[in-house]
Amino acid sequence: MSVEKMLKYQEVDMRYIKLENEVKNSEPAKKKNMYRAATQKSFDTLTSMDDATKNNMDTVVKNKSKLEQLDKQIDEIATEIAEENDDKQLEYYSKQLEKLSQSLDDMEKETARGNKDMSDAKFKYGKEWEQAKKSNAYYIKYNEEYNNFVKDRAGEANAIRKQLVAMEAELDRELLDRYKKIRASKRPVFVPFHKPNICGGCGMEVAQDVINKLGEGRKIQECPNCGRIIYNKD
Ligand SMILES: [Zn+2]
């Protein structure tokens, strides 16, 4: 297995990675992602507003039944008062009525607050909905630009991929698998050994036994620190 072949492969692969990064970091990609996130955020807000509205509606329904209850109680007292009562009983009923009328006041205030909350929520909901539509329209626009951007580079990308596949036939399978595994997180994978003891990838000193192995004609060794493959051209 010659390290040269693997390095040549890496060189071609780096061109592919460069192309990938170009696409990933392109303006349409950034804008597309930004507007997708914005649309998602608006929809999350709308969903939580739906929940709030539902809670508000529950309160309205609850208040309505409380009001009916109060009305019933007042009616009952009114019936009692219509009958013959002594002063003590009248005083008791009048106190009861006072309490109930206070409860009615409170309920009315709460209902007014609820109505205001509902109308505020409706306004905010409408605004958020408009925002969501706008973000989504931008997302669609930039997604299309992004797709065109990718399409423009598809020819070049395919050519590089074909070249890589052709080269892979000549490479050591096991080493290629290791390369691909490391490639997912660290690039480049193959890094030169810098004398007397430095990994060309992470810049850390490597242990003496690794250096010994590199010197013993075994041309490649894994860096114990960063996991890249160090090669020794000497
Ligand atoms: Zn390293």
What's this model, at a glance?
With 234 residues, the chain is mainly α.
Give me the secondary-structure topology.
Layout: H1 3-24, H2 27-82, H3 87-168, H4 173-183, E1 190-194, E2 198-199, H5 208-215, E3 220-222, E4 229-231
Helix pairs in contact: 1-3, 2-3
The structure holds zinc ion.
Descriptive notes:
The chain has 234 residues and is mostly helical. It folds into two domains: 130 residues; 56 residues, no CATH class. 76% of the residues lie in helices and 6% in strands. The protein has a four-stranded mixed β-sheet. The longest helix has 82 residues. The radius of gyration is 38 Å and the shape is elongated. The model has no long low-confidence stretch (mean pLDDT 91).
Q: Tally the helices: what do you get?
A: 5
The termini sit apart by: 15 Å
Average pLDDT, rounded to a whole number, is 91
The strands making up the biggest β-sheet line up spatially as: 2-1-4-3
